[in-house]
Records
---
Amino acid sequence: MRCLALAKHLMIYEDLTDLCKQGLAERKLYNMDSFFKAVDKIKPVYDVTYKVMLFICKVLLVADILITSMSVLGRYVPFIPDPSWSEEVVLTLMSYMAVLSAALAIRRGAHIRMTALDRYLPKTLVKILDLLNDVFVLGLALVMIIVGWKYATTIGSKGTYVSLPKVSRFWMYFPIPIAGVAMLVFELEAVYNHIKGFFVKEGDK
């Protein structure tokens, strides 16, 4: 009889332990879910940032096309001016457009990457590799901000455009730190999405 009573007590204890463990796990999941929902409220800010940067890229592209067209036509049409500063300005605007559009591609996941082996690897491993990839790009963004700003404020500030003597070459080097900031913004979102993917199922996102 004592053995039976002891066995019953052990079974009750094991059930209570399992319930406690299950309750802790559910509470942990609930806390993570609440955290992700709170952070997801920032997503509209990223959406607006993306749209603003896309609009800036479009304006830069239109400006490039107009200045280039004016420069080319100015060589053959007498009444159309062919300013000496057109080449340097076009190259500078193109630099800004290139680095900003590259940052936009980070958010869309549009950069070229090797995915041929992804189908043969475990999904968890693929997620870890994607996370590591974004962490390394995040590090590159920080280097571009620090080193790019250093070059822009030292080498860049000491010279001027050949065709525009009053304009500092700072603006020619400035796209590098600008690109770093833009990459940092969207890489933080990408890293967050990868971490979220470990805790939230695809259908629940």
Note: The CA atoms of residues 72 and 82 lie 7 Å apart.
---
Amino acid sequence: MIDRFTETFGGIALTCTVEDGVVTGLAFGGGAAGGQHDSAALAFWEKVRGELEEYFAGQRRRFDLPVHCHGTDFQRLVWAALTEIPYGETRSYGQIARQIGRPGAARAVGRTCHLNPVVLLIPCHRVVGADGSLTGFGGGLEVKKRLLALEADHAKRGREESL
């Protein structure tokens, strides 16, 4: 059974698609939420919502949700590499391409970021241009800027608190 939930976190609307207790989609914008949800779907949504609330509050740096992404071998390789980018840091498309052993595939990495089915859970917002500039982003460049600022601020606070 497929369930959809829509909610706003930190002023950013997200729509989550859940299939049998696994997140299969998390997209920017308010989509059509499903009507009736069974108790298992509602309980799982509460877990998803809790982790998203913690992320936006700066209390979560990595998600623990089960995720399934349909994609090619290349896309799954890129998405796996994106999950390794530390919270509060960025990597360029070229760096990701080199990391996965495809140094000439920076544009294909960019396209794969654009096709990311579970934004935030696979942090495509942490990928920037070779010169550090903010480049295309499905949620819009303003949202990308906000997410990177949120992470940088919370990462800095974490480092200061550990001193």
Note: The radius of gyration is 16 Å.
---
Amino acid sequence: MDITYNGNTSFFIKGKKASIALNPTQDMPKADVALLSKEGADVKAGWVVDWPGEYEISEVLIHAISVPHGESKTTIFQFEIDEVKFLYLPDLDHVLGDEEIQQVGDADVVLLPVGGNGGLDAKTAAKVYEEIEPKMVIPMQHSEGGYGPVADFLKEVGKTGLEAKGVLEVDKSKLPMDSTEFHLLKVA
């Protein structure tokens, strides 16, 4: 599958049988499924998930979980496409509690906010990564080009010198077994 980053918390994932738009922007292509951390946005998608619950749409298994965000709530998602388990944490602003960790389960790939400004700062993002122990981390809500908040996060986890990619290809059979890969994506 291919993953494209559209800035802030927006991604487009094109799998073998389905496409998923995560907090999509207006210029993204139409997806089979859109996952929204806040309800009510007008998006181009066959199905929209913006409410907590468990769903199966276009052969994509989705678990949407409501979590605190300041004085309100946001929705985070655990979903599986092409046998790869993702954890998408848009707008997360705290270390996950034990109950939240149980709800999200394990993940192969974590889409992790690292930019501060109401979300996770570098140190807190590193703690969330350590809690989950995924096979792959893709930072979001950051300054493009490896500077600013993303550089602080990468330094915090001991990964420096990463070059940003335009599109990331992910294949379950090529994920590491005993380590974590970090990938920085350019805004499309």
Note: The chain has a mean pLDDT of 91.
---
Amino acid sequence: MMSAVKFPLYNLCRLGLTLLLPSMFMGAIAVSTNNKISLAQTSPPTADSRPLTVRSDIQEADQKTGVITARGNVQLFYPARQIQATAAQAQYFSKERRIILTGNVYVLQNGNSIRGEQVVYLIDEGRFIAVPQTNRQVESIYLVSDPNLNTQATPPPKVPTVTPRPQSNTRSPGGR
């Protein structure tokens, strides 16, 4: 049997472990779920590797297929191509070198933008393919340089001044 002196100490240790262990695990879980930044990389980096940063609520990576899926408030940053994007979901297919963004997609690149329900980015071609929602259209805004456009402000056209002619009362008193 346990002595009266050791019993409370034993229970205190047991109580302490009971309280501390779950909080230690919760702290570890909280740290891992707060890490919402992912550098999408499924193969070892090479000299020409550039970071693709994805932030989202949930992310999954499949090493066999080389597909990384991000869901919920997705933000994508690809500085090498000067691309920023937001979507409900993003999938990076590392073997095919393409990114599929779905759900209220907005992409910004060098001041140009595209908005649609689904946007596919073909990395090797540097090409976007956008699909709208049903009965909607894709919207793109492009910055177009125009070297022929006069950069100086052109003054408004001159409006000719009109001077009213004096009215003459040359009528005869008889009304003619």
Note: Confidence is low (pLDDT under 50) at residues 2-7, 9-42.
